[in-house]
Amino acid sequence: MAEKDYYQILGVSSTAGDDEIKKAYRKLAKQHHPDVNKGDKGSEDKFKDISAAYDTLSDKKKREEYDMMRKYGGMGGGGFRPNADSYTYRGRPGGGFENSTFTGPGGENVQYEFNDLGDIFGDLFGMGGVKQPGRGGGKTFGGGKGRAAPIRGADRTYSMEIDFLDSVRGTTTKISLDAGGKMEKINVKIPPGVKTGSKIRLAGKGEPSSNQGPAGDLYIEIKVRPHPYFTREDDDILLQVPVALGEAVNGATIEVPTVDGSKLKMKIPAGTQGGQKFRLKGKGVPHRDGSGTGDQYVVVQIELPPKLDEESRNLIEEFSKRNPYQPREKLF
Q1: Does the chain have fewer CB atoms within 10 Å around its N or its C terminus?
Q2: pTM for the full model?
Q3: What is the mean pLDDT of residues 232-239?
């Protein structure tokens, strides 16, 4: 862990907040994702470093341990190098260190205990433990003597674009992922009611562990394509329905489509105005918590024929004279 600067990998400062780290990770992950750069080994390695960096810096406990090793353990291939103004150690019979106290740049004392000199290097290479005494009997970085503690693999993200009706009804689709150099096809079940920004978690389908720990998770980020005439507001569906002038004036029964694929007959009362809404209960989007379904609202749009003959124009003019009305008077 101490050989790579995770802050530099993500392009953020060591004081960056959680939101800044997440934003940087998402940007870099999309740029270097194996599906975007197929066959590019450099991007694949970069993606693994980005995932490992985010896995550490997004976890409060892991970040604290990493920052401590970064501050007092040094970075790079030179091994364990305390980043301190001075340090002292007390020897023990037979050689090696019994304990060491480092004076940090701020004047603070940080004390470490080592079983022997091999533990210093063993911790860096998964062969021992460095224990920081103090509160609660101390804190151990690295694994037990002889092996490192299993480390969970990094999470991965995958962006998926789906049709509007599939987001409402739910569907099952397949994606291809790079699994150790081989492409693996995975079935992904999209539950009803997802929307743009929804995430679907596939446990254990992320990056493998570097030392026999559990694999990370895969998060599917959903983007929904717009529909030509259905729109969505929360879990309700809006549908603009054109009606003829005669239907609006005299009333009519019309047929309207719904997102579940059925067609319903709906009564338009006489004197219906343009923009008037009619509710179809329970014909919207299923709630994600399973508590029910939204509604569909039909919004009436009155349309005139694209062409009118002279006689029709005269009839409409006569109609206007017989029924004087100023629809814009409320605006003044």
Answers
A1: C
A2: 0.52
A3: 95
